[in-house]
Design goal:
By secondary structure, this protein is α/β, with parallel strands linked by helices. It contains 3 helices and 4 strands. A 4-stranded mixed beta sheet has the order 1-2-3-4, with helices on one face.
């Protein structure tokens, strides 16, 4: 396992480390921290001659604008940004009034299946 973060250069470096492993040890799928990280996994895969999704499946998180337009289109997890924004505003208003009752929230997500994930090839 490799860990990246919101910084695209760390995601790219982590992907390169994984993709430089021996073929039999290399992962068949990568779940990126976010869609920007997934974009950098695409870049690393192409630079290492790894075909998507035949040799490597990729999934992101956020469902940002370019995800559907990528080639192959990115499978991702969609967050309810409008609901999150509304809850943040409500939380700020409650905090200003000294009425904060809840300091964490769990929001529903949705898997958006596109072209970047397939079942791994069997030997």
């Amino acid at each position: 396992m490799k860990v990246g973060d919101y910084a695209s250069d760390k995601a790219y470096k982590a992907a390169c480390d994984l993709l430089e492993m021996r073929e039999q040890d290399r992962p068949t799928a990568i779940f990126a921290f976010n869609d920007l990280g997934a974009i950098n996994v695409y870049r690393a895969a192409r630079q290492h001659g790894i075909s998507l999704p035949e040799q490597l499946s990729i999934i992101g998180f956020d469902d940002v604008y370019p995800a559907a337009s990528m080639c192959p289109s990115l499978t991702t997890i969609r967050q309810p940004f409008d609901l999150i924004a509304r809850q943040c505003i409500d939380l700020i208003l409650e905090a200003r009034e000294g009425k904060v009752e809840q300091n964490y929230f769990i929001f529903p997500t949705q898997l958006v299946e596109r072209e970047s994930c397939v079942s791994p090839a069997r030997p």
